[in-house]
Amino acid sequence: MIVNKDKKYLRAVNIINNAEASPIPLLDENYKVFSTLTAILKHLLTEDEINFIFAFKRKTSQTMEQLKISSELSEEQIFEKVNNLTKKSVIFNQPNRHGVMVYKLLSFVRIFENSFMKDVEPSDYVEKLAVLFAQVFGELTDFYQEHYDFISNMIRNTPPITRIFPILENRQSEKDIEIILNEELEVPEEKILHLKNIEEIIEKFDDVAVGNCYCRHHKEFLDDPCKLNAPLKSCFTFGKTARFTSEQGFAKLVSKDEALKILKETEEYGLVHKSFHNNFDINKDIMAICNCCKCCCVISGENLIIPHVDTTNYLAKINYDLCKGIGMCVEKCINEAIQLNDEKKAVVSKENCIGCGVCASFCPEGAISLLEGSRNVAVLPRRRDKDPIIIT
Predict the structure, then answer these.
(1) Which of 23, 39, 209, 340 could be joined to 251 by an S-S link, Cβ 3.0–4.6 Å?
(2) SS3 for 334?
(3) Which helix (H) or strand (E) holds 370?
(4) What is the 3-class SS of 195-248, one letter each residue?
(5) Exposure pattern of 39-76 as b/e (b: 16+ CB <10 Å)?
(6) Whole-angstrom distance, CA of residue 46 vs CA of residue 12
(7) How many CA atoms lie within 13 A of 218 on its CB side?
(8) Per-residue pLDDT for the chain (392 aa), expressed as one digit of tens each?
(9) Ranges of H-type helices in 28-167
């Protein structure tokens, strides 16, 4: 029997961390993250709520009848616990396809996302939570840097967790960006959905919700606002996830027309459209679309915290006859995949380009097209002890 309070919280850290795929690496040598995640749970949850978390230690998704057995609580007691924990984004409650309510334990990733997706007034409570998550991100960054070679090699061999939806219109000319079939790459029969399909995606779902970009909102509480001043209301959830986020006040249901208008506005700021799927599996239903900037997003650009793999169907291609070396593409690229060479011509790194189309959209000369072909791209933070890679 666990009697020590600190041990209870530490055990709960492991249960919550492993509630979904892609858990935070909690190795013995990464003890700082253990400590900070424990501090987050102590900040968020009562000891009584922690005791209820133990009911999910063997099965992270349960019906009411299953929870009665695993928690040894009455239905009334379970409802009380669940109502409190859904508001804190620790438990997801939505019916399954048979109409039976299922209670699913969420990971620290979801706790972070929904805590800062919602509108919250500045307070000591929220600011402390923001600082604690920033501390986790800093400790993870240090951990990844200390084990850079091992983690980089491991990440390259993991399945992708996000899909890229490219922008397909040049802002200057208002013409479609040229798409060229990349004959060197095998194009699957079922191609990745790109921007012109977003309308179909939104039409597919009865429920669409929009909330704050949790990355940008989190940075605001750290007095480090988005350098692009990009729209805050730009994080989309769909289907049962939209119903959950709206019911709990994390997001607001919007019409399909409103959703498309917001998506179009994010393109004006050069944000990258990334889709997320159930349990971080791109073969499962889409549950969210993020619109990422390079200065705030925890999975992109300068603020990259979480190494991962993106899947894309495009690769930027430069027309050197048209390229004037203006450098807009270099400035806008979220993944440092473009540089200007000695001849002041843009050069693309195939290894780093995620095919988002932002460079092609902003190029005033229309010098960038997109090569079509399915690719996976490992998105890794820059190594601190090495100079930036020079693209040749």
Answers:
(1) 209
(2) coil
(3) strand 368-379
(4) HHHHHHHHHHCCCEEEEECHHHHHHHCCCCCCCCCCCCEEEEEEHHHHHHHHHC
(5) bbbbebbeeebbbbbebbeeebebeeeebbebbebeee
(6) 12
(7) 24
(8) 445 778 899 999 999 999 987 667 765 555 788 899 999 999 999 999 999 999 999 999 999 999 999 999 999 999 999 999 999 999 999 999 899 999 999 999 999 999 999 999 999 999 999 999 999 999 999 988 988 998 889 889 899 999 999 998 999 898 999 999 876 655 444 444 443 467 777 888 999 999 999 999 999 999 999 999 999 999 999 999 999 999 999 999 999 999 999 999 999 999 999 999 888 888 888 999 999 999 999 988 788 888 899 999 999 999 999 999 999 999 999 999 999 999 999 999 999 999 999 999 999 999 999 999 989 999 998 887 764 444 54
(9) 31-44, 47-53, 64-71, 75-87, 108-117, 124-146, 148-156
Residue with the two structure tokens 């900037």: 293
What b/e sequence results for 351-389 when a residue is b if at least 16 CB atoms lie within 10 Å of its CB, and e otherwise? Answer: ebbbbbbbbbbbbebebbbbbbbbbebbbbbeeeeeeee
The burial class, CB within 10 Å (0-12 / 13-18 / 19+), for 115 is buried
Q: Which residues contact 27 (CB under 8 A, 6 or more apart)?
A: none
Q: Hey, what are 90's tokens? A: 């620790």
Decide if 140 contacts 33 (C-beta within 8 A): yes
206: tokens are 């009865």
Taking a C-beta distance cutoff of 8 angstroms, is the pair 367, 323 a contact? yes
DSSP 244-301: HHHHTTSSEE--HHHHHHHHHHHHHTTPEEEEEEGGG-TTS-EEEEEEE-TTT-TTSG
Delimit the domains of the chain by residue range: 5-146, 148-379
Helix (H) or strand (E) holding 358: helix 358-362
Q: What is the pLDDT of residues 235-247, one digit of tens each?
A: 999 999 999 999 9
What's the full length of the chain, in residues? 392
Task: Round to whole Å and give the CA distance between 71 and 358.
Answer: 50
| pLDDT digits 0-9 by tens, 118-143 | 999 999 999 999 999 999 999 999 98
Output the CA torsion 246→250→251→253 (10° steps): 10
- Cα separation values, 41 from 73, 241, 262, 264, Å: 22, 23, 34, 38
